[in-house]
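Structure first, sequence second, as always.
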């Protein structure tokens, strides 16, 4: 009985360790994708990290920030990402010719 409990404890510890590694790997993939400007890929990677380790606030914050940046990029808003988690945004608007007077 004692051996079974020890074996179960070891398996549980290994599973926890493995899930932490998977979350960390996904988070690093997300950071790399952000640095290369691929926000959609970063969202996928950050989402994977959050699914594996939902209690890590850094993963959740990175996912939310990147989702916002990606949605802005898809909406035609130009953004530059200087440092991880920091997004500077410039809005580019077009004005219909009917509004502009000659």
């Amino acid at each position: 009985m004692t051996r079974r409990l020890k074996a179960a404890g070891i398996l549980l510890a290994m599973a926890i360790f493995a899930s932490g590694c998977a979350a960390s790997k996904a988070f690093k993939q997300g950071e790399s994708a952000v640095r290369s400007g691929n926000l959609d890929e970063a969202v996928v990677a950050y989402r994977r990290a959050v699914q594996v380790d939902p209690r890590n606030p850094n993963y959740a914050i990175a996912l939310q920030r990147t989702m916002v940046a990606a949605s802005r990029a898809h909406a035609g808003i130009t953004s530059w990402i200087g440092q991880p988690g920091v997004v500077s945004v410039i809005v580019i608007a077009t004005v219909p010719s009917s509004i502009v007077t000659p």
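Margin note: The beta strands are 78-83, 86-90.
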